[in-house]
Amino acid sequence: MPTDAATTTPRSETSGSQTLSRGLTALSLLADHGSQSIQSLADRLGVHRSVAYRLVRTLEEHRLVVRDAGGMLSLGPQLVVLARDVEHDLQSASLPHLQHLADELGMTAFLAVRDGDDAVTLVTAVPRGVNASVAQHPGHRHPIALGAPGIALQAMLDDPTWRALGHDGPMHPEVERVRSRGFAVSANEVIEGITSVGAPIRSRGTTDASVAVVTVGQPDTEALGAAVQRIARAIEADLR
């Protein structure tokens, strides 16, 4: 019996799609978990080490992944080239303000954008002259249901959009406080012992974004809230 070509996917195409999907997942895992071995990457991908090795070799050829002398994998420089035009205006407008905020507070400051149901770190500034600060790497993602930058992004959504993202329940309780006072506070939600404070950036024509700071302990969240709101307004002004 003849095969319906319109409903049959060639095996090579299916295999290629799976390989591409695994490669993209590998890049996301390196962004989320930082430097790691091939075996660790294979375990997270749920594949044999030999499969992960072939993926890594291909990603290395395109400079999307680099491997140090000890065999540890990290994201490669080509990703910077690919990403430099992504939300370029937003990155350019935010970086000097983020650096000022980081230096002023002695905390890591960053800008997150919404990617579907996730908050993705786009730009990060670490405080100068400080021995230690909480790391927040560009490319890191977590659900917008958690954390101050995610909650600030939630506050920019209407109910139909929230439901369209697959949520049956209400938004985070902190969302109403964001809408009334202008900033979100989150403690121990994304990482135990970490507090974040974030504010939405409202600018026509750009991706939904928020600015946030992250620190350990129990900081003065009112003071941090005022600071992140001030920086959010400054970024908005530069985007006009």
TrEMBL record:
<keyword id="KW-0805">Transcription regulation</keyword>
<dbReference type="GO" id="GO:0045892">
    <property type="term" value="P:negative regulation of DNA-templated transcription"/>
</dbReference>
<dbReference type="InterPro" id="IPR036390">
    <property type="entry name" value="WH_DNA-bd_sf"/>
</dbReference>
<dbReference type="InterPro" id="IPR014757">
    <property type="entry name" value="Tscrpt_reg_IclR_C"/>
</dbReference>
<protein>
    <submittedName>
        <fullName>Helix-turn-helix domain-containing protein</fullName>
    </submittedName>
</protein>
<dbReference type="InterPro" id="IPR050707">
    <property type="entry name" value="HTH_MetabolicPath_Reg"/>
</dbReference>
<keyword id="KW-0804">Transcription</keyword>
<dbReference type="InterPro" id="IPR005471">
    <property type="entry name" value="Tscrpt_reg_IclR_N"/>
</dbReference>
<dbReference type="GO" id="GO:0003700">
    <property type="term" value="F:DNA-binding transcription factor activity"/>
</dbReference>
<dbReference type="Pfam" id="PF01614">
    <property type="entry name" value="IclR_C"/>
</dbReference>
<feature type="domain" description="IclR-ED">
    <location>
        <begin position="71"/>
        <end position="240"/>
    </location>
</feature>
<keyword id="KW-0238">DNA-binding</keyword>
<dbReference type="GO" id="GO:0003677">
    <property type="term" value="F:DNA binding"/>
</dbReference>
<feature type="region of interest" description="Disordered">
    <location>
        <begin position="1"/>
        <end position="20"/>
    </location>
</feature>
<dbReference type="InterPro" id="IPR029016">
    <property type="entry name" value="GAF-like_dom_sf"/>
</dbReference>
<feature type="domain" description="HTH iclR-type">
    <location>
        <begin position="17"/>
        <end position="77"/>
    </location>
</feature>
<dbReference type="InterPro" id="IPR036388">
    <property type="entry name" value="WH-like_DNA-bd_sf"/>
</dbReference>
<dbReference type="Pfam" id="PF09339">
    <property type="entry name" value="HTH_IclR"/>
</dbReference>
